[in-house]
Amino acid sequence: MNKSSNIRNWIFKSFFMMSVMAVLLFFVSLQVYLMLSDRPSISLQLSIYLTLWLAFILLLLSIYFGFRTGYTFKGRIDDISTFITLLRSGKFSARVDRFEHDELGILSDELNQLAVYIQEQVKSLQRLADEKSELADQAHQAAVMEERHRLARDLHDSVSQQLFALNMLSSAAQKSVGKDGGKVELIVKQIADIAGKAQGEMRALLLHLRPIDLKGESLCEALTILIRELKEKTMIEIDATLEGIDDLSKGTETHMFRIIQESLSNILRHSEATKVKIVTEKKGGYVSLYISDNGKGFDLKKNKMTSYGLQTMRERAEEIGGRFQIRSKEREGTYIDLRIPV
């Protein structure tokens, strides 16, 4: 960096210019005073006037140069601060302008290079996720898929059907109990509640055991099928808006599908929700995913990502360079936000 272009010399030049202008004003005032000093009647008044005038001009110069220097540096520092905020929010395509070849200019160049580096790292992460997904398909997919199909088929044919029958029978028995059967009615009601919870748990398990491959379908098609099946098998109202997920890489599609699948499994298993909202959209260089429910929620301070399912979702998001956030409060539902650069 040229020594004449650093910040210290720039400030020195500003104050040097102010000093030169102050000296020039002083000599001009002195010349005026000497020209009029031969008039004793106005010499004292003139001295006071010139002194006040000179002080006023110096004050204006100080304010001007101070404001100009401060405003210039504040604007440049604000630009750098805003750029850092954009980087932290995941907008790696942003850049900060360089106006001078000084320390702040060098800092701007370094931050721009950092943004390029992070952007390349995100691309590398997504590329590695694609390669990892392909290798996993080649090495383990056949055995894993076969086992998942077998478990899901066995559970559906036996336990799930039995729980459903138990739920129906216990509900019918509860309605037919006479007036003197209060104790029996309470017991049957408890059986119905337990059977209903067990059935919800089994549905969540079946959802979790669902094959993770998309079977040649697009992410939007696979999610549409998954949501339709849940609507048919559960009483949960699901509102889905699926946009901007048509041109994603294979690894990104697989990870997003698994994150949504895991989220719905957690909702079925723990939330006791009646409504779920799923929204995907592409905006500003990234794809966003939003999932919310009206369930019982939980306290994040007491459960800081301790759930295996939540940890898995966060890890899957990080593997493709995404940013995963979860918000929840007791009796106010749970909200999941995911942003993936594309």
Notes on the protein architecture:
- This protein is α+β, with helices and mostly antiparallel strands and 342 residues long.
- It has 2 domains: 3-88, no CATH class; 120-341, Heat Shock Protein 90.
- The chain is built from 7 helices and 5 strands, in the order αααααβαββαββ.
- It has helices spanning 7-36, 40-88, 103-176, 182-208, 219-233, 250-271, 308-319; strands at 237-242, 275-283, 286-293, 323-328, 334-341.
- It has a 5-stranded mixed β-sheet with strand order 1-2-3-5-4, with helices on one face.
- The longest helix has 74 residues, at 103-176.
- It is elongated, with a radius of gyration of 35 Å.
- The protein starts with 6 loop residues before the first helix and ends with a strand.
Question: What labels describe this entry?
Answer:
single chain; 342 residues; alpha+beta; Heat Shock Protein 90; 2 domains; 5-stranded mixed beta sheet; 7 helices; elongated
Q: Which regions are unreliable across 5 or more consecutive residues at pLDDT < 50?
A: none
| Arithmetic mean of pLDDT | 76
Number of strands: 5
- Name the strands of the widest sheet in spatial order: 1-2-3-5-4
Short description:
The protein has 342 residues and is of the alpha+beta class. 67% of the residues lie in helices and 11% in strands. It folds into two domains: 3-88, no CATH class; 120-341, Heat Shock Protein 90 (2-Layer Sandwich).
Architecture blueprint of SSEs:
Blueprint: H1 7-36, H2 40-88, H3 103-176, H4 182-208, H5 219-233, E1 237-242, H6 250-271, E2 275-283, E3 286-293, H7 308-319, E4 323-328, E5 334-341
Parallel strand pairs: 1-2
Antiparallel strand pairs: 2-3, 3-5, 4-5
Helix pairs in contact: 1-2, 2-3, 3-4, 3-6, 4-6, 5-6, 6-7
